[in-house]
Amino acid sequence: MPLSHVFDTYAKTAQGKKLHFNVILDEEDQQKALSCAKQWLVSIDLEDAVVTPENCYFYHSLEAPADMRADIDKKGYAIYKMEGCPK
């Protein structure tokens, strides 16, 4: 399996709520990670959330688990939710 690349990402909503999540891609491309983070935020109805290049940075590479691999193959990215993210 190919290695995927993890971007540690933080966003802040207009209401001041902070979200912490990882964007997982097959490319080590910060601009794509930033774009995917914004896409995901829109998909969970948080289009007002702000994420900047300073808050979306390469963290490490790994072999993505099967569920994340399926998301990457389908959408081009996977999200690993951490603090403040909806279930």
UniProtKB/TrEMBL annotation:
SUPFAM superfamilies: NE1680-like. This is DUF2024 family protein. Pfam families: DUF2024 (PF09630). It comes from the Bacteria. Gene3D superfamilies: NE1680-like.
